[in-house]
Every structure is written in C-alpha cells, then in structure tokens.
C-alpha cells in the first residue's frame, strides 16, 4: 500500500479535528485494540489535538500533536498502527513470525506466503481469524518488520500451505516509514 508513497505527492490536505470527533476516534481505536486502553493517553493525549491527514487513494493518516504519524486508515481496512508506534508498543498487535528466507521479500513489499509462515523458524498463531491485522515478525529479529492483514485464518494457512497468507500493508523503509513528521 505504501511502496511508492511520497509525502509531497500523496498528501492532499490536513485538518484539525473537533474534540468530539477526536473522542470518537480514540474510542474506535480502543474498541479495535483493547490493549491500548492503558496507554491511549500517552499515544493520543486528551489535552492535545491531533490531525487527520488526507492522502490519495482513500488513505487517511492520524498524526499526533507533534506531527508524528501514528495510525493509518484505508476505507476498506480498520485503523492500523504505524511501525514506529508498533516498535514503541509491541503488544498492540498479535504476532505472526516468518522464517529468515522471507525477510528480504517482506522488506520488498511482497505478500507473505503461507510456506514462509509454516516452515521451521516461523511461528504461526492458528487462532487468528481472517482479516486480522498482525505484526509481521522475523526469525531472529526483535522488532516487527511489517504490518499485514491476514487473507485467511491461521488454521487455513497451516492446512492450505500455498499462496499468499498475509497482505503486506506497511513495512520497514516503505514510503510511510520515511515520513517521520507531517506539518
């Protein structure tokens, strides 16, 4: 989704949100990610205003009061935390781990294939349903290298074991990763 994202070209505008809209977004985020409830005031403090940045292709970014992009919203997907936020709060998303051989493909923006999730070195959480937003971890690495949306359930990935299992939405060094702050 963000492979060729360019801040100057893809951002079309931004707006300051009313406090009632901000409260609605905070509540939606806590509903989607219940683990965030304890740290929501650190991420999006009630006393600080945050911005909604509109981009091309029906993408919206939520930026904190300092301009740091925290969440991404595409019209077809739920709110997704950015990798920078996920590195700070790794418990936000459930983890799926790929083997070492899949790392270069994930960092190239490719979809995560089922064999990369079921081979030795990979760890597959079979309890997760289809359309779950997950952190893509890698064998031998501490931090997530991508964020994806599961195309099938964990059990289906294990049983089918071919084709794409996770859509790669955001990964290290993609266009969104390079946007540190927006004005």
Entry keywords:
27% strand, Sulfate adenylyltransferase, RNA binding, PUA-like_sf, alpha+beta, single chain, 183 residues, PUA domain-containing protein, MCT-1/Tma20
How would you briefly describe this protein structure?
It is found in: Cytoplasm. The chain is of the alpha+beta class and about 180 residues long. It contains 8 helices and 10 strands.
CATH architecture of the largest domain: Roll
Percent in helix: 25-40%
The shape is globular
Number of domains: 2
| CATH class label of the largest domain | Alpha Beta
The secondary structure category is: alpha+beta
- What is the typical, i.e. mean, pLDDT? 87
The major beta sheet can be summarized as: 5 strands, antiparallel
Rg (CA only): 16 Å
* H and E order: HEHHEEEEHEHEHEEHEH
With strands numbered from the N-terminus, the spatial order across the biggest sheet is: 1-2-3-4-5
Put simply, the count of helices is 8
Q: What distance lies between the first and last C-alpha atoms, to the nearest angstrom?
A: 22 Å
Q: How large is the share of residues in beta strands? A: 25-35%
Q: Low-confidence runs (pLDDT<50, min 5 residues)?
A: none
Q: Say how many strands there are.
A: 10
The assembly state of the depicted protein chains is single chain
CATH fold naming of the largest domain: Sulfate adenylyltransferase
């Amino acid at each position: 989704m963000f492979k060729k994202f360019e801040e100057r070209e893809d951002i079309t505008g931004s707006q300051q949100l009313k406090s009632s809209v901000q409260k609605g977004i905070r509540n939606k985020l806590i509903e989607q990610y219940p683990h965030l409830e304890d740290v929501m005031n650190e991420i999006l403090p009630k006393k600080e205003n945050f911005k909604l940045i509109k981009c091309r292709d029906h993408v919206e970014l939520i930026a904190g009061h300092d301009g740091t992009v925290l969440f991404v919203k595409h019209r077809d997907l739920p709110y997704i935390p950015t990798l920078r936020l996920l590195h700070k709060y790794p418990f936000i998303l459930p983890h799926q781990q790929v083997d070492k051989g899949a790392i270069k493909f994930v960092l190239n923006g490719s979809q995560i294939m089922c064999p990369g999730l079921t081979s030795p070195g990979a760890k597959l959480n079979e309890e997760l349903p289809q359309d779950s937003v997950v952190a893509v971890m890698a064998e031998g690495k501490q931090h997530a290298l991508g964020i994806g949306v599961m195309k099938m359930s964990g059990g289906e990935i294990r049983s089918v074991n071919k084709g794409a299992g996770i859509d790669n939405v955001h990964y290290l060094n993609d266009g969104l990763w390079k946007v540190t702050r927006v004005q």
